[in-house]
Amino acid sequence: MKNLGPLLTAFLVPIIVPIAMRALRRSAVSDHAPGRTSVELRYGVPMKVLGVLGLALGAFMLIGPVFLSSEGSPSFDPHRLLLLLFIGPIGCLMIFVFLDAFLVYHSVDLAGITCRSVLHRPFRFAWDEIKAVDYNAGMNWFVFRAIDGRVGRVSSYIAGIGTLAELSIAHLDRSVFTDLAWTHMDDAAAGKPV
Q: pTM for the complete prediction?
């Protein structure tokens, strides 16, 4: 019974991860209403739940190895410090998921896009300032590049992506989009999960 945890994890992860990803994709287009002229793009409930789980797991990954011994009493062991150095970055990324889910939002309207991030202050792109739109399939986000070098990234999991896609297609020339970005924008504008 002691080795049941890894077996259970190996069985559940391939089932849970695709279900969670599907929920994220569906929540991004669930409120799509064609013809909107402005929208605030925010993460939906599935991403916020994932963010809270990420916060809990990340905190446990950072605190657990240093302060808890196998007997459950607080102690410090140099080997636990090495463990923390190994899994600490992963724990920090899990906490970043929480921050991203609750603090990141964007807005899009007839004049352009405003991008907000945990890592930088908000900035605005006017439609005529955007020189390229790409889609990063590994990160599942649209990458907007401005003439002056600014780069804005908008996750395809964020609610309101359909309106962003509609307005992008309406205000930007087709030559600005890569083929992959155009395909995903067209799908999102039609209300399909990206």
A: 0.75
Distance in angstroms (rounded) separating the CA atoms of residues 55 and 102: 11
Contact 154, 148 (CB under 8 A): no
DSSP bridge partners of 68:
74
H or E element that contains 136: strand 130-136
- Two tokens at 127? 């439609």
pLDDT tens per residue across span 32-71:
667 777 788 888 888 888 888 888 888 877 777 666 655 5
DSSP for 38-84, written as a single string: -EEEE--HHHHHHHHHHHHHHHHHHHHHHHB-TTSSB---HHHHHHH
The rounded distance, in Å, linking the Cα atoms of 115 and 81 is 38
Partner residues linked to 154 by β-bridges: 142
